[in-house]
From TrEMBL:
<protein>
    <submittedName>
        <fullName>SulP family sulfate permease</fullName>
    </submittedName>
</protein>
<dbReference type="InterPro" id="IPR011547">
    <property type="entry name" value="SLC26A/SulP_dom"/>
</dbReference>
<feature type="transmembrane region" description="Helical">
    <location>
        <begin position="61"/>
        <end position="89"/>
    </location>
</feature>
<feature type="transmembrane region" description="Helical">
    <location>
        <begin position="126"/>
        <end position="145"/>
    </location>
</feature>
<feature type="transmembrane region" description="Helical">
    <location>
        <begin position="101"/>
        <end position="120"/>
    </location>
</feature>
<keyword id="KW-1133">Transmembrane helix</keyword>
<feature type="domain" description="SLC26A/SulP transporter">
    <location>
        <begin position="24"/>
        <end position="402"/>
    </location>
</feature>
<feature type="transmembrane region" description="Helical">
    <location>
        <begin position="399"/>
        <end position="430"/>
    </location>
</feature>
<dbReference type="Pfam" id="PF00916">
    <property type="entry name" value="Sulfate_transp"/>
</dbReference>
<keyword id="KW-0472">Membrane</keyword>
<dbReference type="InterPro" id="IPR001902">
    <property type="entry name" value="SLC26A/SulP_fam"/>
</dbReference>
<feature type="transmembrane region" description="Helical">
    <location>
        <begin position="350"/>
        <end position="379"/>
    </location>
</feature>
<feature type="transmembrane region" description="Helical">
    <location>
        <begin position="268"/>
        <end position="287"/>
    </location>
</feature>
<keyword id="KW-0812">Transmembrane</keyword>
<feature type="transmembrane region" description="Helical">
    <location>
        <begin position="214"/>
        <end position="235"/>
    </location>
</feature>
<feature type="transmembrane region" description="Helical">
    <location>
        <begin position="32"/>
        <end position="55"/>
    </location>
</feature>
<feature type="transmembrane region" description="Helical">
    <location>
        <begin position="183"/>
        <end position="202"/>
    </location>
</feature>
Amino acid sequence: MQDKQGGFAVGNLNLKKYFLPKNLKKDLPSSIVVFLVALPLCLGIALASGAPLFAGVLTGIIGGIVVGTLSGSQLSVAGPAAGLTVIVLNAITTLGSYETFLLAIVLAGVFQMLLGILKAGTIANYFPSSVIEGMLAAIGIILIMKQFPHAVGYDADFEGDERFSQTDEHNTFSGILRAVARINYGAVIIAGVSILLLIYWPKFKKLAVVPAPLLVVLTGIGLSAAFAGTGFALLDKQFVRIPIVNSSAEFFGLFKSPNFGDIGNKQVWITAFTIAVVASLETLLSLEAVDKIDPIKRISPTNRELVAQGIGNITSGLLGGLPMTAVIVRSSANVNAGARTKMSSITHGLLLLVSLLCIPFLINLIPLSCLAAILLMTGYKLTRIGLFKHMWQLGLNQFIPFVVTIVAVVLTDLLIGVGIGMLVGIFYILRTNLRNPYFYQIDRNGDKKVVRIKLAEEVSFLNKAAIQVTLTSLPKGTDVIIDGSNSRYIDPDVIEIIHNYKHNAYTKGIVVQLHEIKDKYDVPPLKELMYNPTN
């Protein structure tokens, strides 16, 4: 596997590690969890996008099998993304046909491959950690708030929605209030029992060979059957609704092909570029977030991921699916379920395919409330109290961007919220950089005051004003030592200020000595300039 800044090649896959018993023991149960989480999300996102339900499941299958195989990430899971629903819905309407929209998806995939080849994935290196942590916590809060209505039997909003403003003309808060007023007690019982099983079943080590989420689903099916004909009975819309395929001819009839005749349509290219940029940004954010919660702390190659996503989107567009990204909800569920390798993601794609072809009637017996319970627990793990305590201990320059990101993501959507968090995070980075360009020490040489100014490891043009103010405010008759021995980089503007000050200081009776300050420094990588702790 290549490093995070690495190229786009798939590289040599070490297939043996994916089939090691110790890995399969973790990956196979995890794949069931991801499958159960992904299934309603694929259907809900397709419904909200104005696309066929089959397209959502197909995208999940391709995301699991194709992207999962090509990706360098061991834990990331790709599939249809809630963040693209508005773009997809508007694009289908604007372009006039679903087949023309599929052409835009294919072109978007080509754009993503080019971005990977050009190593645009390195932009992920510049996401502040506080913002990524805030995004994870925000997703956890969103999961809890968005899944609560489904857990109590109110399913007006589509599964997988992450936006504050909902498609049912309500928002997250009003949706919760409406859900409380429309509780289905059968759904509440199923969700409550499911949460208890998720908490306590893993404590029974000998019984835990059966994954708790699988037991939750079986229990949910059993309880919903027991409630039939009673006051606790669930409505049809409170169950999973996967398309039922009765024959191979009907199955292959569900696939659609892009309309290549519209290749000259300007709007197709604009839509393709928009999808490529938004999908790539969401993918890189998700990849960075998954690497943070990976217990083994592996680093995923971002450029290779863009190529894998590009190939996935080309495949999806050619077969009739939706645009896809790496998705943080499914990926975090994968991590929390204990996955170790990409075999979990690939197997979840195979399970989606099997469920569509072989057991759709059984899948449609699963209550949404028990799947909501799984997502509620995932949300709780992402937004644990300990994370807030940890960020507080890191100081306000980390805690404030963290909290701002959470609030912004919860009250808008993922990309807008992260963008706001990035602006605040960058402000604090610049603020820290401006305030700490040097260390100031005052000594005495007999009756004469000696001021030693030791410059920081990285001194950028942003430090110019602070250093100039300090030098011009030094009292007359002072000996000044400007020490650059610790500096790997000093901006040319700062060097010019230092030399000008030395040249003119004699008029104030100030003697200036320069220690290990070169006339020119090689420019360091941007990330080192922004994040070096000495700044």
